[in-house]
Write a structure and sequence with these properties.
Number of helices: 6
InterPro entries: Barstar-like_sf (IPR035905)
Protein name: Ribonuclease inhibitor
Helix content: 40-55%
Organism: Kaistella gelatinilytica
Number of domains: 2
Strand content: 5-15%
Length: about 130
Amino acid sequence: MKQFFIKGENIKDISAFYEEMNRLFMRNEDWKIGASLDALDDLFYGGFGEIKGNEDVELIWQHFQENRKVLGLETTLEFYEKKLRSPEIFNSKLIQEKIKELNEGTGQTYFEIILKIISDHPNIHLIEK
């Protein structure tokens, strides 16, 4: 089984998270995935980058709890508020609902969304360090 080590100490924001994903999974490609949850989901389906198809992969996430905080509530609110500045691209009503849920304590943080994406791929085995 292939093993990949997420160096959590490199992750200071959303952009740095994707830099780390590209370092791990796209090192032999001449292109990189963008800072997109959909791109992350596609990456874990395999077929490009370091994951070949539906092969089993062990994803060892170092500094897991620190990254939970870094990609937590504040970062997620900033992420959604930035999207609100481009209503011609993003669904403002949906984003406002996501912000409301976060403020009420019922919404998912960016970190929790990442974990959900990982859990949707049974071949990706997450180990928290």
